[in-house]
Amino acid sequence: MNEAHLHMVVNHFPIIGTILALGILIVGLILKNHSVRNTSYVLFIVAAIFGALSMGTGEGAEELVKDMPNVGWEIIHEHEEIAEKLALLLYVLGLLSIIALYLNFKKNTKEKLVSLCIVGIGVLSLFLVQKVGTSGGEIHHTEIREGFQNTTTEKEVIDHDK
After folding, report:
1. 90: helix, coil or strand?
2. CA–CA separation, 54 and 16 (whole Å)
3. pLDDT single digits (tens) 75-93
4. Do the Cβ atoms of 144 and 138 come closer than 8 Å?
5. 150 to each of 17, 74, 142, 146, 157, how far by Cα in Å?
6. For helices 34-65 and 3-10, what crossing angle results, to 10°?
7. Residues whose CB falls within 8 Å of the CB of residue 17, separated by 6 or more in sequence, listed in order
8. Which end of the chain has fewer CB atoms within 10 angstroms, the N or the C?
9. Are 98 and 80 in contact (CB under 8 A)?
10. How many angstroms separate the CA atoms of 115 and 50, rounded?
């Protein structure tokens, strides 16, 4: 398994995990259920860990794909810049989640305030989650790039299917 493969294996959880954790936290707040909130905190922590793994494997993945046709430095750089911002938010969410878990176990009333901060930062992170996912997908999936023009003719499709 090379760095690009490893990057593709670990880079989905920070995105999906953040979305799931945020949804679970909101449900936990609505239901006033500490166990549900604790589950979301653990998911935020795991998303932060996988975010660090994604950042750690990103450079190696870049080296393997930057010279491939239709990839280029610009699209990789854009993805990298957005991913760095998201990683910072994930680290903050992970740290706040550790604090919230501790406060929850200590039955401290400040846990709810910390959880509301997590919701706020989590909602902000959704914007970056979408941007990171899209920009990462655009590296090899040219069909999702802005301005994509499908130049395949119907005859080419038929010939390819034979």
Report:
1. helix
2. 13
3. 788 888 999 999 999 999 9
4. yes
5. 33, 21, 10, 12, 12
6. 160
7. 43, 44, 46, 47, 50
8. C
9. no
10. 21
Q: Token pair of 91, please?
A: 């680290």
- Residue 32's SS3 state is coil
The DSSP string of 120-146 is HHHHHHHHHHHHHHHHHHHHH-GGGST
Closest CA to 7 of 44, 53, 45: 53
pLDDT tens track for 7-59:
888 899 999 999 999 999 999 999 999 999 999 999 999 999 999 999 998 88
Read off the tokens for 145: 């790039």
Residue 108: φ, ψ to 5°: -85, 135
54 within 8 A of 11, measured Cβ to Cβ: yes
Residue 118 main-chain phi, psi, to 5 deg: -65, -40
Radius of gyration from C-alpha coordinates of the chain: 19
CA 58 to chain centre: 13
Q: How many CB atoms are located within 10 Å of the residue 3 CB?
A: 17
Beta-carbon contacts of 82 under 8 Å, excluding residues fewer than 6 positions away, are 128, 131, 132, 135
Structure tokens at 133: 């996912």
Q: What is the spatial distance between Cα 134 and Cα 32, in angstroms, rounded to a whole number?
A: 34
